[in-house]
Design goal:
Layout (H helix, E strand, L loop, with lengths): L7 H10 L18 E5 L3 H4 L7 E5 H27 L16 E3 L5 E3 L1
Length: about 110
């Protein structure tokens, strides 16, 4: 996942493609007075896509809120799901009597080591 350089020409192209509208709140961005960021619609950490199609202008404050409230938890969940899927996640404990436990309950009710 490599991030391309964000130069002035690329920022202007992204701004013009969205007609200068913040994609999060829908308000017009005054490009000369307000600070804005190029926000990844699908987070870069999830998609790996740093193309101009995945970037939209967003107010700096809107972008900060979206990143902390929506993107960070989504990225964390995707990483947890991927860890479970590839087998690198190990459960913290096992339920007594389950196959992962060192004890086994027989039909007569006695508990024996596996």
């Amino acid at each position: 996942m490599s991030r391309r350089h964000m130069n002035t020409t690329r920022r202007a192209k992204i701004f013009k493609a969205a007609d200068g509208v913040c994609h999060i709140c829908g308000e017009k961005i005054d490009g000369t007075r307000e600070r804005w960021d190029a926000d990844h619609v699908i987070p870069l950490e999830i998609s790996g896509d740093d193309s101009d199609d995945n970037l939209r202008p967003a107010h700096e404050r809107c972008h900060r809120v979206k990143t902390s409230k929506k993107d960070v938890p989504t990225i964390a969940k995707c990483k947890r799901v991927a860890a479970k899927h590839n087998g690198s996640h190990k459960p913290k404990g096992t339920l007594p009597g389950s196959k992962g436990s060192k004890w086994k309950r027989k039909v007569d009710g006695t508990v024996v080591p596996r």
